[in-house]
Specification:
The structure is a single chain. The protein is built from 6 helices and 2 strands; from the N terminus they run H-H-H-H-H-E-E-H. The protein has 170 residues and is mainly α. A two-stranded antiparallel sheet has the order 1-2. A hairpin with a 2-residue loop joins strand 1 and strand 2. Helix 1 packs parallel to helix 6 and helix 3 runs parallel beside helix 5. It starts with a helix and ends in a 21-residue tail after the last helix.
């Protein structure tokens, strides 16, 4: 069964996020241009959301690699500047684990709800996908702004090759 259009869009959003980060080094990744967080924090923060949604809630799995991640980069937590290599490693682990679940989604499953503590979560799976996609784009823009503020040049100027996620009727 083909992957749903929303899952394709999430994967395209991830690809554009990683394209925005090409060439970022460890030193620049941990610099904060306040009030924004640093780039390494952003990577961890997006990992945290995907982990919460698609690994913990959807699969009931706790990855050892994410121990303490929410305290480090979770919403509303104090600012931090985690090492870039650590956040990239966690992002890879989380997105690989998340894909195991995302690959199972079908059009009929998108309006359904995951359960948390025996109750339906407040948003449908499809809405959670929207939220995850838009979260990537929000932070891709922020990371781009940080890079510009750090004086980086030759940054992507526009959305990349969308042919892998082009509109196709479901």
């Amino acid at each position: 069964m083909p992957v749903t259009a929303l899952v394709n869009q999430l994967r395209f959003s991830r690809a554009e996020f990683t394209r925005c980060l090409e060439g970022v080094n460890e030193q620049d990744a941990v610099k904060r241009l306040e009030p924004m967080n640093c780039i390494s924090w952003i990577i961890g923060h997006l990992s945290n959301q995907e982990n919460r949604y698609w690994v913990e809630m959807a699969q009931g799995v706790t990855l050892p690699e994410v121990s303490g991640l929410n305290d480090l980069v979770g919403y509303g937590k104090p600012a931090s500047s985690p090492p870039l290599a650590d956040m990239k490693f966690i992002w890879e682990c989380v997105t690989q684990a998340a894909d195991g679940y995302l690959n199972t989604l079908t059009k009929p499953s998108l309006p359904t709800y995951l359960e948390v503590d025996g109750k339906p979560y407040k948003e449908s799976i499809g809405t959670m996908l929207y939220r995850n996609i838009y979260h990537y784009w929000f932070h891709t823009g922020e990371a781009h702004a940080i890079r510009q503020g750090l004086g980086h040049t030759n940054l992507p100027q526009f959305v990349g090759d969308i042919s892998c996620a082009a509109y196709r009727p479901e």
